[in-house]
Amino acid sequence: MRTNRKTDNYLEWFIQTQRYFISLTLLFATTLAFAESGDKRVLTPDEARKAEILQLERTMTRISQESQATYQEFLMTQEMRRNELAQPVNPNPYSSTSKSVPIPSYDDMIQRRKDKDDRLAKYTEDLDRLYSRYQSLETEREEIFQRIRALEQRKGEE
Asked: Which of 78, 86, 84 minimizes the C-alpha distance to 117?
């Protein structure tokens, strides 16, 4: 198979250029990494306190969002449990056009009751788990809030 000499030269040039570009990019990234690591200076106590407060506020925001999501999931699960409780176990298959009401099978009734009880038990477990998670998140958020308050008071005293 014959190839065009111009095309071969172009491909070689392109590959060589790509190698140089990748090498320069890696060199630049390495230089930035070393420059950043060498830029770490000793923070003053005020700067360290501000940095810690900023980090705590970020953590508190994340915890607040997770807490809100947990609370919303709790409310949805609670509503699903309420709806399940409100639904009759054996819906009446009465139709105004039919003359007789079919008698439901005893096994079907028992199975529907068991299924409903299982769903209610699962909702109850989920509610307990979500409530515990929400309480722990709120406790953690309050601890962080107290830590921020203490850092801000220390700043005001100095």
From this structure: 84
User: What is the number of alpha carbons within 13 Å of residue 143 lying toward its C-beta?
Assistant: 8
Query: Strand, helix or coil at 69?
Result: helix
Q: Are 101 and 157 in contact (CB under 8 A)?
A: no
Q: Is 79 helix (H, G, I), strand (E, B) or coil?
A: helix
Amino acid letter for position 4: N
Q: How far apart are the C-alpha atoms of 56 and 62, rounded to whole Å?
A: 10
Lookup result for tokens 């060199």: 27
pLDDT score, position 84: 92
Is 0.90 topped by the overall pTM?
Answer: no
Q: Rounded to 10 degrees, what is the CA torsion of 78, 79, 80, 81?
A: 50
Find the helix packing angle between 106-157 and 45-86, rounded to 10°: 160
80-92 confidence digits (pLDDT tens): 999 999 988 776 6
